[in-house]
Design goal:
Length: 248
């Protein structure tokens, strides 16, 4: 199985940022315009980009169409992107703006049957479902929504099985507690997801800090890894990683 690296650019107020554990009050801003950062990743050898609209993730209404078009015009990157996707029209508009895949998060938790309909209409290759999880006091994985600010009461395992039965191909799962923490990916979580739905291509997100973590995610059965803070803070040499046989 090939393995894909997804350098990530999270955008808030037009700037490249990272949040700590999804908390909008704990934001770090980074130098460089988002399109310039994307071009740098492309020149390093990346083939994909993970682009997140943090403003829309909370408020709805994807705002990065112009940035997406600029990235697509300046680079050969394939882009998966989302934030604030609330309707089929949103999916269609983001695809028309140049996205290769649309990432659906909150609505994938609240209205899974609608999202399954989009998978049917647009094709499983064009939709990435983001089931971002936080472990509760009982050890169960729950799925908060609205930029991780609202409890949904929906459990990760049951919803993944529902999507897998409906033909889901791409799953992005972030362990929220590890997001932006450089604490290593939750390999136990990803092994469990692969066991539940071996036909689904799982993208590890949250905590990746170095090349060894990328290798560990692949060995855990993941089909890809999202690289955020570790890239922005130069803990990972993307060009060197892209030369490795795990592919980009």
């Amino acid at each position: 199985m090939s393995f894909t690296l997804y350098p990530a650019i999270d955008v808030r107020d037009g700037r490249v940022v990272r949040l700590r554990q999804g908390d909008y009050a704990h934001e770090t801003r980074y130098a460089g315009e988002p399109a310039d950062v994307a071009e740098r990743y492309s020149q390093a050898g990346a083939q994909w980009l993970h682009l997140v609209d943090l403003d829309a993730a909370r408020a709805g209404g994807y705002t990065l169409a112009a940035l997406l078009r600029a990235i697509k015009s300046r680079t050969p990157l394939r882009v998966q992107t989302g934030g604030g996707v609330r309707s089929e029209a949103d999916v269609e508009a983001i695809l028309e703006a140049g996205a290769d895949r649309v990432v659906v998060g909150s609505l994938a938790v609240r209205e899974p049957d609608a999202v399954i309909g989009w998978i049917s209409r647009f094709g499983a290759e064009r939709i990435t479902v983001a089931l971002d999880a936080r472990q509760d006091a009982c050890g169960k994985w729950q799925l908060p929504t609205a930029g991780w600010t609202q409890a949904s009461g929906v459990a990760l395992e049951a919803l993944l099985r529902h999507y897998a039965d409906a033909g889901l191909q791409h799953l992005l799962c972030t362990d929220i507690a590890r997001d932006g923490m450089l604490a290593g990916p939750n390999l136990e979580l990803y092994r469990a997801l692969v066991d539940i739905a071996p036909q689904v291509l799982v993208q590890a997100s949250g905590g990746v800090r170095d090349a060894a973590d990328v290798v560990a995610a692949r060995e855990a059965g993941c089909a890809g890894a999202v690289l955020g803070k570790a890239l922005l803070e130069s803990h990972i040499d993307l060009a060197a990683l892209c030369r490795e046989p795990l592919a980009c």
